[in-house]
Structures are given as structure tokens and as C-alpha cells.
Amino acid sequence: MTVEDGGAPSERTRVRRMHERSRYERAAVYAILDAGLLCHVGYVVDGQPYVTPTAHWREGDHLYWHGSSASRMLRTQRSGVPVCVTVSLLDGLVMARSGFHHSMNYRSVMALGTAEFIEAPEAKLAALEAFTDRVAPGRWQEVRPPTDQELKATTIMRLALDEASAKVRTGPPVDDEADYALPCWAGVVPVATRAGPCQPDPRLAPGTPAPDYLRTLRVG
Length: 220
Description:
Blueprint: E1 22-23, H1 26-35, E2 38-45, E3 48-59, E4 62-68, H2 72-78, E5 82-95, E6 103-114, E7 116-118, H3 121-135, H4 148-152, E8 154-160, E9 163-169, E10 187-190, H5 212-215
Antiparallel strand pairs: 1-9, 2-3, 2-5, 3-4, 4-8, 5-6, 5-10, 6-9, 7-8
């Protein structure tokens, strides 16, 4: 539960180290999830921990991801094992006057729970449409929809965001007071993920222009 809901973070999601960087409000957590495109899903198979990167998207109070129905990750999660999902965004390299105080500016979210398998074909289609248009608004209306076989070969999972917290670092380095007089440059080197110019498929039909939503795509 989040502070905005009138409650407090769970003991599992409470930020203990650098607690001043914690964010528990749904708006803060959701903004980070929506800014990212890639999450990491942690789970355990026969006592062995695994962490798998995958694309994600959010609808309301649920986080979604998908993949091949043959995926061991997804087959394991369908069985009801607990998962830990993280999203991390790097915003800058923090260059301090001492090696010890170098850091990074970042935004991150951790969510815990048991993922739910989306089984109904119409619900799977709706989820895939939401994912496609989340990445590139308007794309779903232009492309061929999935066939029944393709839909069957795709597994979609969703996680209720009941236990989630964010951690954020911003600003300049924090040095020891005695080090501020050192003749050493200090500050922040901004880091950003960006979408570059479209690169046409070599087999693209002649005269097919890139859609406007790809030319104006923003990431992060």
C-alpha cells in the first residue's frame, strides 16, 4: 500500500538505506514505470534465482509483461511463484571530489507479488494492443493483428501493484566538507536514452514513409 492511499509501504518494500530517497506515492511509482521500457523479473526455479529482462507496460494498477508460451520464465510464473520486478532509469553520472562519493542519479521501482496469467483471448488482444500503442501510439491500427496461433504462442502476465516503492537520486555530489576546496572538477554528467532516426527495413515497400509517431517518439 502507498502513502497516497492513506497507508504505508509494506515491510518488504520499505526503503531502509538512504530512506530520504524513497517515494511511495502511486503517482511517483507509476511515472517511473511509464518512463521505462525494460524491466527485470526475478523468480526462483528449484532453489536457483533467475532474473530475466523483458519489456513491460502498465495499465491502471497492474504491470504487464509478455513472451513466448515456451519460455521457462513465463511457465514458472504461471505456476504462482513469487516475483520481484524492477525498473531502473539512469539519469546522470555524479562526479565527486573523492572516489568514495561518486554516485549516479537514477529513478527506480521495485514491485513484489505473484503474477496473474491472462488467459482469455479477448483480454490478451486488449493487452497486446495497449502494449503496442504504449510504445508507439497508433501503431496497432496499422499492423496486422495476431493470428489465433500467434496469440496461443504468447503468454501475458500481470502483477497487481499492491507492494511497490520507488527510490530516486537527483542533484550534485555530496562531498566531505573539507574536500570542496580541492581543485578537482565535480558535477553531474547527464545520461539519457533517446530514440534515433528511423532506419527503414531493406525490404520496405518503395515510397512507404515513416509514420509521424515514430519521428516524434520520446523515450525515458
